[in-house]
Amino acid sequence: MKGSRQPQSMEGDTHDISTSGLALRVPAIRIGEHYLAGENRSLNIKLELPVGPVEIKAAPVRYERIDEDEPEIGYVIGVRITEMSATDRARYEEYIASLIKKQE
């Protein structure tokens, strides 16, 4: 269809995870001409967990460049979770609880 846009995506991994937010490691700070950590930006995140994927809507709160020693992954973006389905929220929190239990 003429004029329709495909959603743009980027692969990365988690650097840190909590019930209220995530730190994402990504190779670039923008997709096309859009900054991932721009003001009033919303990110749609698909997180692959051992219990299955969860979809998260999040707002970036900060970002920083990773040390030059890791050229394949260039930035860490801290995001605050703003929206998630009840099913995904339950699986996500169950996963975090399992991580905490492993540390005990």
Helicity, as a percent range:
10-25%
CATH architecture: Beta Barrel
Number of helices: 1
**What is the terminal-to-terminal distance?**
54 Å
Give the SSE order as H and E letters: EEEEEEEH
The CATH homologous superfamily name equals predicted glycosyltransferase like domains
Alpha-carbon Rg, integer: 15 Å
Strand content: 35-45%
- The structural domain count equals 1
The CATH first-level class comes to: Mainly Beta
Question: Can you describe what's shown?
Answer:
The structure is a single chain. The chain has 104 residues and is α+β, with helices and mostly antiparallel strands. The chain has a single domain (13-103), classed as Thrombin, subunit H (Beta Barrel), CATH 2.40.10. Helices cover 17% and strands 43% of the residues. It contains one helix and seven strands. The chain has one helix at 86-103, and strands at 13-17, 21-26, 30-31, 34-35, 43-49, 52-65, 75-83. The strands form two sheets. A five-stranded antiparallel sheet has the order 1-2-7-6-5. The longest helix is centred in the last third of the chain and has 18 residues, at 86-103. It is globular. The termini are far apart. The relative contact order is 0.22. The model has no long low-confidence stretch (mean pLDDT 87).
What descriptors fit this protein?
five-stranded antiparallel sheet, 7 strands, Thrombin, subunit H, alpha+beta, two-stranded antiparallel sheet, single chain
What is the secondary structure topology, with strand pairs?
Elements: E1 13-17, E2 21-26, E3 30-31, E4 34-35, E5 43-49, E6 52-65, E7 75-83, H1 86-103
Antiparallel strand pairs: 1-2, 2-7, 3-4, 5-6, 6-7
